[in-house]
Design goal:
mainly alpha; about 0% strand
Length: about 170
């Protein structure tokens, strides 16, 4: 069982990271968009609309990919914890085996939040290309939905850490 002090510290860290990735960064991107007078780089022959759709699909899929990356990270972490480290190819995982479950959660969370914040970045890119703030709004709406899904909650953190400690 994780000590209460470490749990509190990890919850605070997770929420601070979520605030930075999912609130502050998108606000900065929005301010940049509002103060940037984007010029059209090339005439619209339908390719910008097509790019909007492609990037929106990418933005929808990115956080889903992070779930599979998390599963891979957890599997690798648990496998490294169970393996007796000997000199050789497994020695590179020695650092991973020394990471506490709480710290490992923060590492995994950073990966997931990066994928979610990429949705907001794609919104800014689409705005800079299309010069239409409403296109950016689609990405922000999607980013907000993903933010609610991936926002760190204490119950999720405890469940994740207990999974690592039991295995």
């Amino acid at each position: 069982m994780i000590p209460h002090e470490e749990l509190d510290r990890r919850v605070k860290q997770a929420r601070l990271l979520a605030l930075m990735f999912l609130v502050i960064m998108p606000v900065v991107f929005l301010v940049v968009a509002l103060f940037t007078r984007s010029e059209r780089f090339y005439p619209d022959n339908g390719s910008r609309r097509f790019m909007l759709y492609v990037l929106f699909i990418v933005a929808f899929m990115e956080p889903i990919v992070s779930i599979f990356i998390k599963k891979f990270q957890v599997k690798n972490y648990l496998q490294t914890k169970k393996t007796t480290l000997k000199p050789g190819p497994l020695a590179v995982n020695k650092r991973l085996s020394e990471i506490s479950p709480g710290r490992f959660y923060i590492n995994v969370l950073i990966t997931q939040l990066s994928f979610v914040s990429a949705v907001f970045v794609l919104g800014l890119i689409v705005y800079l290309i299309t010069t239409d703030l409403s296109n950016m709004a689609y990405f922000y709406a999607l980013g907000i939905i993903w933010s609610f899904i991936f926002w760190p909650r204490e119950e999720k953190i405890i469940t994740f850490i207990n999974l690592l400690e039991v295995s």
